[in-house]
């Protein structure tokens, strides 16, 4: 069975959706380990409740980002993971890490990339007066939120929306699309080549499939 390692920093609702889909047999893989860069991430409790091994790598214990990422990649190599899933992992990975696992790292980002890479996407969308927002699953490369887009989900922004309103709508979509994309990857249907994403051998459009 294929092995997935999930990296988190916080709540772990996306992690939960992926663990649940694996447990239910919807994804033919096991979450082999959950890694966090925050010792108090609630997602670690979710993993423990599901009997999944956890590991914490804190920046303060390493001389620099490269050494920290080297420790994480050694740990993942030890598991022989087939796929690395970033699920709310809020630390930028070094180029050494992303190259080592090229084509095997997925991320979910709460915006319709290439719009709003980085932090505070909800605030940016509301302040810009956008009428829609969304979330993107993409392959991870050296550029932050810059890898090939795979799948996006859109939600409306209504005139009086607060950040929490839009975030709630986006989260509901994330819990649908992330397990689906993980399933595509596990089933061997999704590949990255030359900085582009392919599903069943077909090139996905510049902005993935929205
Ligand atoms: C998700 O909404 C995800 O899109 C976002 O963090 C949240 C994690 O929630 N990721 C990023 O902002 C990455 N730049 P979760 O811990 O409940 O899955």
TrEMBL record:
Pathway given for this chain reads: Purine metabolism; IMP biosynthesis via de novo pathway; N(2)-formyl-N(1)-(5-phospho-D-ribosyl)glycinamide from N(1)-(5-phospho-D-ribosyl)glycinamide (10-formyl THF route): step 1/1
Keywords for this entry? Purine biosynthesis, Transferase
* Domain of life of the source: Bacteria
Q: What is its EC number?
A: 2.1.2.2
Check the record and name the InterPro entries matching this protein. Answer: Formyl_transf_N, Formyl_transf_N_sf, GART, GART_AS
- Which CDD domains does the record cross-reference, listed alphabetically? FMT_core_GART
What residue range is the signal peptide?
none
Family from the record? Belongs to the GART family.
What protein name does the entry list? Phosphoribosylglycinamide formyltransferase
What lineage is this protein's organism placed in? Bacteria, Pseudomonadati, Pseudomonadota, Gammaproteobacteria, Pasteurellales
């Amino acid at each position: 069975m294929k092995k997935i390692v999930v990296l988190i920093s916080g709540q772990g609702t996306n992690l939960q959706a992926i663990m649940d889909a694996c447990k239910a047999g919807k994804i033919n893989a096991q979450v082999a380990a959950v890694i966090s860069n925050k010792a108090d991430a609630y997602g670690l409790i979710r993993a423990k409740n599901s009997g999944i091994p956890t590991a914490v790598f804190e920046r303060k214990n390493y001389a620099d980002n490269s050494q920290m990422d080297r420790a994480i990649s050694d740990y993942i190599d030890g598991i022989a993971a087939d796929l690395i899933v970033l699920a709310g992992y809020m630390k930028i990975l070094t180029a050494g890490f992303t190259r080592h696992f090229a084509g095997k790292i997925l991320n979910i980002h709460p915006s319709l990339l290439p719009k709003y890479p980085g932090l505070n996407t909800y605030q940016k969308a509301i302040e810009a007066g956008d009428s829609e927002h969304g979330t993107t699953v993409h392959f991870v490369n050296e550029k932050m939120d810059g890898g090939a887009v795979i799948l996006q989900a859109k939600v409306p922004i209504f005139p009086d929306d607060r950040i929490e309103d839009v975030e709630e709508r986006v989260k509901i979509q994330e819990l649908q699309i992330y397990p689906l994309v993980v399933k595509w990857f596990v089933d061997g249907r999704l590949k990255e080549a030359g900085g582009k994403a392919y599903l069943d051998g077909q090139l996905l459009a510049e902005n993935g499939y929205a």
